Amino acid sequence: MSMAGNLRKVTHLSGVGGLRKVARLARRRPRVDLSHPARSPLGSSVVNCVTYRDGVRVPGGSDLVDAVERVRKKGDGFVWLGLHEPTDQEFAGIAELFDLHPLAVEDAIEAHQRPKLERYGETLFAVFKTVCYVEHEELTATSEVVNTGEIMVFVGEDFVITVRHGMHGSLGPLREGLEADPQQLAKGPAAVLHAIADHVVDDYLLVTDSVQADIDQVEMDVFAENGARADPGRIYQLKRELLELKRAVVPLGRPVEDLATRPIRVVDPEIQAYFRDVLDHVMRAKEQIASFDELLNSILQAHLAQVTVAQNEDMRKITAWAAVIAVPTMVCGVYGMNFDYMPELHWSFGYPLVIGVMAVACLVLYRGFRRSGWL
Fold it and tell me: For the stretch 87-112, what's the b/e string if a residue is b when 16 or more beta carbons lie within 10 angstroms of its beta carbon?
């Protein structure tokens, strides 16, 4: 029987006795280091499992059951378990070990959630949308500009579980940064939650700066000399990608505000002060996105106006040339009729005279249209 199967037998884990029962069941199988995903008994989705005490990483094995048992037996420290796109089977044992609510577990596995903050008993469940800027040599009507993913965080008094979806947003550098600041990490799981929120929101600001460069380039192209010929598909594509960014940033304002202002048991009041800084960055990102949306609307309207003006100019030119050509067409049409008695028909200078009259009339019309700006 696998370790995950043993974990699914556990129904009550709040006491040390329940943990010892899990440990006895788990010892029927050899211990495996969870830091090696390919050999993890809980599935290949496990990225890392580390115990921290007083802000310092506890050396030794990364077995999940032993780590939880030690932390809860001693009553200090916490366990940080990192997962990447786990399946139902891989997450079942972990959910029972930490007594996670089924609704939160379902959201963590299925993904595609809005940013939110929910409390299930003594456990806090947060959803963050991660974003990254997709580099491209030239913006086209089909260019991908913003790529999104998700990070779900379960926070308890003695554990943090991070579930990541997507190919970007790795938390490895974040973990190293926290380990380099033991004083901050000693504040417990809430410090990890703050670091993740701050990391995600900082990425928002980086992406908005990159998107602004694309918008500036489109704006320059639209207001260039041949701006009417610019591809409007690029503007629509930017608006579509901006909408994806908006879906990640805007809903996060309320959850971060709750973390910064509302009393939450697993969030120390000292950590809430840090969340206020994160909230300020979220508001800044929201304002930038709103201004980008308005600017793209203005650029699109300006481009449509340029197209309309260009079409009007083309129609005026066509109309002016049609008027010039209408004069000789009319004269030729008259003299093309089969009548015996027509002015100057049998005069030897009649033909040159008619040609001269047509040329003069066309020249007068041409100069008049040029003077009025039609040609």
Answer: eeebbbbbbbbbbbbeebbebbbebe
Mean pLDDT of 222-251: 84
The two structure tokens encoding residue 184: 């901050």
Rounded (5°) CA angle 234-227-230 = 30
CA distances to 107, 324, 338, 366, 367 from 327, rounded to whole Å, are 77, 6, 20, 11, 14
Measure the CA–CA gap between 98 and 122, rounded to whole angstroms: 11
Please tell me the distance from the alpha carbon of residue 145 to that of residue 207, in angstroms, as a whole number: 9
What residues are paired with 344 via a beta bridge? none
Handedness of CA 51, 55, 58, 59 (dihedral sign): positive
Contact of 375 with 321, CB cutoff 8 Å? yes
* Residue 134 φ/ψ region, left for φ over 0, alpha for ψ in the -120 to 50 degree band, beta for the rest: beta
Task: Determine what percent of the chain falls in helix, strand and coil, rounding each to the nearest 5.
Answer: 60, 15, 30
| Sequence-ordered list of residues with C-beta below 8 angstroms from that of 287, at least 6 positions apart, any chain | none
Tokens of 44: 């290949």
pLDDT attached to residue 163: 93
Question: How far, in Å, CA of 51 to CA of 188, rounded?
Answer: 11
In the numeric block, the tokens 């308005």 are attached to 294
Instruction: Please check whether residue 51 is in contact with residue 77, taking contact to mean a CB–CB distance below 8 angstroms.
Output: yes
CB 322 within 8 A of CB 315: no
Could you tell me which residues are beta bridge partners of residue 162?
82, 153
Burial label, 310 (beta-carbon count in 10 A; 0-12, 13-18, 19+)? middle
Could you tell me the pLDDT band of residue 22, with boundaries at 50, 70 and 90? very low
Pick the closest to residue 124 from 204, 189, 202, 199 (CA basis). Answer: 189
User: Rounded to whole angstroms, how far apart are CA atoms 339 and 66?
Assistant: 116
Residue tagged 């930038």 (tokens): 288
Express each pLDDT in 62-82 by its tens digit: 578 888 888 888 888 899 999
**pTM assigned to the model:** 0.73
At 129, give phi and psi (nearest 5°).
-95, 120
User: Does the pLDDT value for residue 9 go beyond 60?
Assistant: no
